[in-house]
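FORM 7B: Structural annotation worksheet

SECTION A. Query
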Amino acid sequence: MGDIGQVFGCLAGADAVVHLAAIPRPTFHPNEVVFRTNVLSTYNVLEVAAGLGIRRVVLASSISVLGFPFFYHRFAPNYVPLDEAHPMQPQDAYALSKVVGEVMADAFARRTEMTIVSLRLAWIHTPASFQEQLMPMWEDRAAGASNLWGYVDARDAARACRLALEADVKGHERFFIAAPDTFMPIRSEDLVREFYPEAELRPGFGEHASLFSSARASHLLAFRAEHRWRDYV
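SECTION B. Predicted structure
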């Protein structure tokens, strides 16, 4: 994905693109490698799509644009549930690469007639990983705090990609894609009060509600998560 010529070869003849290729976290590679790889691959996809006249691109962005979960210095959300209007506050190379990806999408939407959809995906899981990775956090609530206890089933993430390809939207649009609940069995308000007491709790915040609002995705993409950890644990 770092070689624009090869990207041209890959995308020739495509009607649309779903760009998922990236280094998914900043912990296994040097910061400059994470940033360069993610930013350059996204730029190349957008540049090639523009050159080939491809009219629809879906980008895998991340909740990390907000600054979670790989921050160096702890901070709290301004409010919950978080929506697309919340400020982006990246600290790490991965989060910064995703912010830059969205800024590039803005630029290409201004430059061309492409429709670009950035899906801010929560922590992606499968039925197997619900038990292997999430259940241990029930005993250690702090372990999931940096992720704001948010998740999305891989099947719902895939369906969001398809819906983004088909949605009647224009320009560049951003959407949070998350399950409607947290992966914790205790009340969401209690989690917020314990770990992020500075955050404003906005009206309508449900008992086990996710700290990420997918309301905009529901409205414009007709997205609703169909799979929850409670169905498999």
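SECTION C. Observations
Strands lie at 16-19, 56-62, 79-80, 115-121, 124-125, 152-153, 172-177, 200-201. The two ends are 38 Å apart (CA to CA).

SECTION D. Sign-off
Analyst initials: ____
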